[in-house]
Amino acid sequence: MTDPVADVRSPQNPKDLQVESGKATGGGPGDLHQLEPDRAKSILTRLLRAAYPHPSFPDGPYERTADTILTAAEADEGDQRVLLLGLSGLDNAAHGDFVGADDDAAEAMLRNVADDVFFVRIRSTAVVALYDDAEVWEALGYEGSSFEHGGYLHRGFDDLDWLPPARIEEYAGSTRIEIGTEEGTR
C-alpha cells in the first residue's frame, strides 16, 4: 500500500518540461544557461498573474513578489536550479513564449505543474508576499494592521459602503432578570 501523500505525480508529460541543461552556451529558450535574469523574472511574473488572477492589481505587486521568490532562490543553489528549470520548462511547454500565453493556456500549464516541487515552492512564498503588499491591500480595500493604531473600533470597522446601514434597535421590553444571581449582589 502506498502513501497517497508520498506518491504525488504531475499529469504533465515529462518531455514537455524537459530542459537541456548540460550546454554552457547556445541552445534556445529551454536552455537553463540561456534563461537571463530578466527573462526568468518575466516568466515568473506571468506565472504569478496566472496563478493569482486579479485584474485590478497593477503589475508592481506581481513584480515585487517575483523579486522576492528569485532572491529567496538565490540563497540556495539547489532551489535556484529547481526554480530556473521549472520556469524554463514552462517556457518550453508554451513553445518558447510562456509570457505571451493567453490566460487559459497559462492556467492549463500551471495546473499540470501544480504538484511539482518548483511550483509548490513558488506558491508557498507567493501567497504571503503577494497579499502582504501595501498596493494589494489598497486594491482590496484592506486598511492594514490595526494594532499599532489602537484597533478598528474608531478606525473603519463599520465603513463598508457597499452594505446597507445596520438596523440597530434598542430593546423596549421589560427588564431582564439574570438567572443565578441574587437580588442585591450586583
Mean pLDDT: 79
* Helix proportion range: 40-55%
Taken in chain order, the helices and strands follow as HHHHHH
Counted by DSSP, the helix tally is 6
Low-confidence residue ranges: 1-33
Strand content: under 5%
Query: Termini separation (Å)?
Result: 65 Å
Number of strands: 0
Q: What's the story with the biggest beta sheet?
A: none
Could you please describe the fold and organization of this structure?
The chain has a domain at 14-140. Residues 1-33 have low confidence and may be disordered. Helix 3 packs across helix 5 (117-131). The chain has 6 helices and no strands. It is elongated, with a radius of gyration of 25 Å. It is mostly helical.
How would you summarize what this structure contains?
This protein is mainly α and about 190 residues long.
Which descriptors would you attach to this protein?
mainly alpha
Topology:
Elements: H1 37-51, H2 59-74, H3 77-93, H4 103-112, H5 117-131, H6 134-140
